[in-house]
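Reopening: structure tokens for the LLAZDA3J complex, inputs below.
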Amino acid sequence: MAASVHLILQPPPNHHRPIFRLRRRPVRCADERQALFSRIAPVYDNLNDVLSLGQHRIWKRMAVSWSGAKEGNNVLDLCCGSGDLAFLLSEKVGPNGKVIGLDFSKEQLSVASSRQHSRSKACFNNIEWVEGNTLELPFSDCYFDAITMGYGLRNVINFHKAMEEMYRVLKPSSQVSILDFNKSTDTFSASFQEWMIDNVVVTVANGYGFAEEYKYLKSSIQEFLTGKELEKLALGVGFAKSKHFEIGGGLMGNLVATR
Ligand SMILES: C/C(=C\Cc1cc(O)c2ccccc2c1O)CCC[C@H](C)CCC[C@H](C)CCCC(C)C
Ligand SMILES: C[S@@+](CC[C@H](N)C(=O)[O-])C[C@H]1O[C@@H](n2cnc3c(N)ncnc32)[C@H](O)[C@@H]1O
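Re-run output (same inputs, fresh job):
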């Protein structure tokens, strides 16, 4: 499962420098993405706070609120990572509810689990962490009252299959709320987003030794869907209603779809 790298031999520019360097090729397959998220697990939360100046917490609260999750509900947080949305859902559904956080990275789930145990809130006992694939959910049809997914859809290798699976496990009339970077159709917003990633995100991540991992963000947004395309994708798999909201000054977006 180790990230694959190309060894690129280069002529030595001078004798103090190594005669070869490692260059990662684009992170394309699921195994490479899984390895990437496992590598960054120890710094992921801290970098989110630093890079977004804490704003990601607001965007995540909005996503949970848009999911329509209520006291006593049985809810699912897909691509839960270190668990931010699952913890917010846990407070919403309370001790009579149940939250499942699913992710395919053991390292991310291990951070989530230790955060759960280091917090004193009793309601966090209602969370269960499941190691699994968003593209093959281990749950029966019409099982959940609400689903959230934060910064997950863009990272899965098949958007359509992921959406079909969400539709399948969601109860009729229930909602899925999908937070992610917004692939803007506005040239200024798209350029600003790219500038932020190249000049702020990658520079800061480089200080933690993860420049390559954060460079992947830009290509993943370029390969993602616009708000309108996300709305169509949801309707195409059977959702009755679907609406995309731009948030965070257009840097982020949230799709809300009702089964
Ligand atoms: C929430 C953030 C990153 C999540 C994230 C998602 C991914 O898919 C990754 C993939 C690979 C590596 C890492 C990640 C990952 O960390 C942080 C986002 C930061 C924004 C790019 C910058 C936000 C800048 C501003 C301070 C916000 C200003 C908002 C204002 C209202 C205009
Ligand atoms: C950018 S992180 C988001 C974590 C968290 N939801 C948040 O908002 O902070 C993306 C997560 O998606 C997970 N992921 C990507 N593809 C997946 C898949 N096919 N199945 C399960 N998890 C996946 C990764 O392991 C990673 O933890």
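The radius of gyration is 19 Å. Confidence is low (pLDDT under 50) at residues 1-23. Marking as resolved unless the reporter disagrees.
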